[in-house]
């Protein structure tokens, strides 16, 4: 790998960038094409080398920073040690090696022995109830299962006993009733595959049986028992689906029926999950733990690793493309994800603690190493010998209802995003309203989180209706969504146009009913429609945001109003009554108030949000509609259309910007389904 060049004159990506022709940061991995198995192994090894200077003398702890979490610092250093094992163990299982002077695969084997030894200075400590150490049992168990020649066989009898006792200590402890139960399964599975008699077969079966009660339909599992409505990346790449696929590979002889069922679920799930990715390799940010980055694509690699039958249009080449395009997106175009010394930062496209959870330590981002699981496949496996294929053409230009997660996915008009209703985290999580309650989430524009408790600029209120009852000092957004469902124009046959409908209650005496209508590919492919019916006993100030977009001009200075609203080559902001749009090299984002008789009329403004609210760009501008609602017995209405079209380039040489002809699409205003208009009680003016 070429040495890191901190600043070179190169193009930057559509998001997370400054402007072309300026000195902009480069990633340390730009010279690696990341097309082959050897390329991926080289990327992994460079990241492993970056951990060397941070590794303790005994190898058991990796200290990457000083920020705190709700758990202790020893557990955080255990994270730094354990999570890279997803990649290292896969590399070794596939016949590869990691030798980098004094820092090599044996460093981790020694660290495992020392970290589990109560008599060693670097002992991790025994597990307690609901202990963070439980999470790290998962990659350790995986390493024992797939690479015992490094992590088990060469160790002394005493070291093996220490590992058995430490991992086995999870069996009688209380665990969260979530995907965490998979960590105990992997602890026992690893001991079993390594040949230890310490594994608890009854405990493992009981955990698996209980985890199977999380299953819904269509391949989807929620992250918890009945009553939990949380189907984010923990239902897919971060935890449940990947765990099921690994289990189906490693336990297919001992547990054939369950293994076959897990692969059947994965086949169904894959056809939905495909729509969370765009043709450029980006995945839609949604939910918590976004700092895990390219772990978002780990499902595709796990599907290949498990040798699961693939439903059309998926092929080994399609899986390869889905995984590697996502990894290239991060490795080639997101310099803020890495330090110059090849370690991962806490954040998403740039270092940003506003978006993180209280369990994100400096070692947490290495959950991303789940994406390296296909390295466990031999070099002659079809996944590595087949040509990488593009995103399936039959899955482009579609709008698809996703019934279990209560999402509607769309990639028409060149924009991949989901409309969302009905999800919420079942326990306290930072910025939960932003991570689960927004109306839309985009692969190109991401989502934003609050950075303070006052002002709209601090709120980062993209794709949400923010309401205030104190003249705009404090704002509330949708968080606890109830009675959410997907409706069809013809409810009996479930045909015709469809939309999301939900109820939410920001105050006891305020109720909001929201309809989210996806793009009409034939009439207005760049638009989606939002309708809100508000019944309130208090006066409300309202601000509804569209998609937050990169807010700098060609000179890297803040965007200014355009001088000619008919010139689509200009970058800037346009405000005109109930219309507002913003253009930059990231594309175009706009909002229009749709005139409906009886609806409250609103005015548009391009709001510059506070720095570091958005996951993808630190400086964003947000098209926003402003209005007021007076208290009364009758419901009040907002009706609006949201346009968004991203640049066609990610890290390309051209200057990007919205595609030509976007202003013509701006004039093709969206239509509101008549079934919703009848609820308003009036017709379009």
Automatic annotation (TrEMBL):
Residues 36-390, 399-677 form the DUF2264 domain. Residues 10-20 have a biased composition (Polar residues). Residues 1-20 are annotated as: Disordered. This is DUF2264 domain protein. It comes from Pleurotus eryngii.
